[in-house]
Amino acid sequence: MTQAQPPQTAGDWVRAHVWISGKVQGVGYRFSTCDTATLLKINGWVRNLRDGRVEAVFEGPGDRVQEIIRWCHQGPPTAVVKDVSVQYEPPEHLQSFEVKR
After folding, report:
1. Could you tell me if 52 and 21 are in contact, meaning their C-beta atoms sit under 8 angstroms apart?
2. What's the Rg (C-alpha) of the chain?
3. How large a percentage of the chain has pLDDT more than 70?
4. For FRET with 23, which of 30, 56, 80, 98 sits at 20 to 30 Å CA-CA?
5. pLDDT tens across 57-67, in order?
6. Torsion sign (Cα): 85, 77, 14, 101
7. What is the pTM of this model?
8. What CATH number was assigned to the domain covering residues 2-85?
9. Where are the domains of the chain?
């Protein structure tokens, strides 16, 4: 797992740019991510990449963003996650969560 330094305060609004590799396409990973983000009230997006990885951006309170990053290591039951890489960026204050195509 590659991960930049997480935010200092759990409640701070943060943006995490995440890349997930392994068997993560064709297993419902994007839609499960969207469902999980919606439950956690996190904004952002998720999409498949041509190289077989899934890319996602999560914005919200730091503790909730950390929770969805932990979830990404497992994903839906049919996924086999090999690596999760995280880079923290300045928040853009996205207003919803979407599955990009």
Report:
1. yes
2. 12
3. 89
4. 98
5. 999 999 999 99
6. positive
7. 0.90
8. 3.30.70.100
9. 2-85
